Amino acid sequence: MAVAQVVRSEWTKVRSVASTVWTLSVALVVTVALGVLISWLTRREFGNMPARDRLTFDPTFISFAGMSLGQLAMIVFGVLVVSNEYSTGMIRTSLAAVPQRGVFYGSKLAVATAPAFAVALVTAFASFFLGQAMLGPHRTSLGEEGVLRAVVGGALYMTLIAVFSMGVAAMLRSPMLSLGVLMPLFFLLSPILGTVEATKKVGQYLPDQAGARVMQVVTIDDDVPYGPWGGFGIMALWCLVVLAGGYLLLKRRDA
Amino acid sequence: MISLEGLTKRYGEKVAVNNLTFEVRPGIVTGFLGPNGAGKSTTMRMILGLDHPTSGDVRIEGRHYAELRDPLKSIGALLDATANHGGRSAYHHLLCLAQSNGLPERRVHEVLDIVGLTAVAKKKAKGFSMGMGQRLGIAAALLGDPRILMFDEPVNGLDPEGIHWIRTLMQRLASEGRTVFVSSHLMSEMALTAEHLIVIGQGRLLSDLSMADFIRQNSRSYVRVRTPERERFLDVLRSAGLTAMETGDVLELDGVAAEQIGELAARHGLVLHELSPQQASLEEAFMRLTAESVEYHAHSGPAADEQAPWGAGWKKG
């Protein structure tokens, strides 16, 4: 079984369903639009902000504010691209055509990650440049220390959000169940653990909170025990764990 | 050729497929018959490597499914007409399958043509009727021009014209020397298409015979008699050493020729209103066969079931 054949086949699958286009476009549009809006509001309110916030103001991170919502579409993309196989029964046809489950799984993940990364890259740069334009006098530029890393990091963060979702969907198979786990994780559990003082220490190791570190440029005055790439590494580790879980289950389970 | 050896599948306590051993040979249509829930689909999924057997072995042309290079070129299967993504067009569904096995795009158009879906090739599969879905599944099975074809209940949802089409197709494929394995829960369907018949009930092999032998062994022939002189007729039968089954005003006699009864009646001056040789339908034969399996199952107890399967298959995982 030539891997190249399976990769081509998976690419045909990804590009021939409408959900790919709409989830990825929603991710782009929502992230950029919300980032622009929040950047514009921040510029208007800058004078009213407490002095401490003004000193630690991170214009790069602010322009990525839309990701908190835009990642929802990335989650849906990651879940659908994998769980579609199961919810439609296509998996039996797919595995009869490609019985080497490892090749099938690896090709599917690689092929789905590529367009997610491309869209995330465009989203990150568009959010950054448009956000900075809105910030006016408070803006930063790509040349400043750590900014380029944060923008590329933003793209990688969004990509890994999709990859993490693919791994969870591979384990759970059902799209509803997968979204039922991922939504509360990213939109309830993570914000709650991150806000409450007593649980912050735990919350900062969740994939989204750790991964988001790579998008920040100004990180004065907090006691997070990892750097930008350290945080990103924690997120990548989470992805590896769920992907491995998905692989083991796919290997063992009846289709 | 498909070869099963001691193939067994358990789900917890339940044995879905129990120690099946048989071969499906090329050049003929082999019917795979059993009531709903007999384990036909589970067996077919194991043949395709989709479900892992608890024990036993199944091989395609002597090799395990997972060892096949570009399996669609060796075996094509229609398992479930809805096993496709509803949002994907028929063309793209077949294209992604073709690409995965290194088949040219030209082949997609050819099979669409064979099953008569060319006109709707760009339409999404969710708009398809059951019959069109069935045709799309058959197109996928034919894609790699395989030597072995397997169809799970292919006539389901087809209109009479479609049923005629699939029967003719299966017979043509077999006449080209291919192995054709087709499941059904309808004896009447099998009688029209299959040359060889494998019958299972409750996951167990009940019969593995040519259709002709199956009919010979399983269909009961008897003579039906109606007479106004019932009591005298029964006396005459008794003295001739024959017994009759009485159902209403009709008498049924097993294992005796109609001619013999007629001559006997004439000798004793008996009036007969009916004397006709009868053949029980294949449907009845099938039902009797599977009913017996249920009975056998109930009396045998669990011990008999559980001897063979364990052990052999574990090393293969």
From TrEMBL, chain A:
The keyword Transmembrane applies. PANTHER family: INTEGRAL MEMBRANE PROTEIN-RELATED, MEMBRANE PROTEIN. The keyword Thylakoid does not apply. Keywords: Membrane, Transmembrane, Transmembrane helix. The chain crosses the membrane at residues 21-41, 61-82, 109-130, 150-172, 179-196, 229-250. It comes from Streptomyces chilikensis. This is ABC transporter permease subunit.
UniProtKB/TrEMBL annotation, chain B:
The keyword ATP-binding applies. Signal peptide: none annotated. GO terms for molecular function: ATP binding. It holds the Pfam family ABC_tran. Coiled coil: none annotated. InterPro entries: AAA+_ATPase (IPR003593), ABC_transporter-like_ATP-bd (IPR003439), P-loop_NTPase (IPR027417). Residues 298-317 are annotated as: Disordered. Residues 2-227 form the ABC transporter domain. Keywords: ATP-binding, Nucleotide-binding, Transport. Belongs to the ABC transporter superfamily. This is ATP-binding cassette domain-containing protein. It comes from Streptomyces chilikensis.
